[in-house]
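pls read this protein.

:::
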Amino acid sequence: MAHDPRDFFRQSTLRDEAPSHAERVAPQRADARREAPPEETVGSTDYKAYGVMPGGCADCDVRKWKELRLDLPEGVMFDYRLLTMIQYSALDLDGIEWEIDLMFPDCIIRLIGRHLEDLRFQLRRRKVSFIQEYSPMIYKTPLGKLPEGEPVISKIHIMQYGDRLRRDADNQRPV
């Protein structure tokens, strides 16, 4: 009975017997599979101001509502690599109303709302996966009935640097 030399590679007995690199270095972790933790949303009602990925994320979706149709979304997605600065200021003495500006090379995203301290910290750690503006036409819970201390983003402004440059150029044209 003749043996086929390719049987050696088909059986791969050497590979089955030899431990992998992970088994040699950390045998207790060789079988552990790393799964991404689920996204956590912030809010106890149907409105969720933002979502947090515990392990961090590479980008963030910012959703606001159209000016004339408050039931139609619009927004931007940004990559955290392009976020150059987070500027913030409290708008009242109690520190409840906040304004957070996210600075990018081509635009500024301004978030205005209540109880946004945790959002600022999570943005700094690059863990926020989405941010959304409150709209009374979308969410069942009225703005005044949201639980006390829960974050609410009342307005999102997306300002492109090019928009201002075009406006300034239009105002300076000779007549």
User: Anything to note?
Assistant: The longest helix spans residues 161-171. The mean pLDDT is 81. The radius of gyration is 26 Å. DSSP finds five helices and nine strands in the chain.
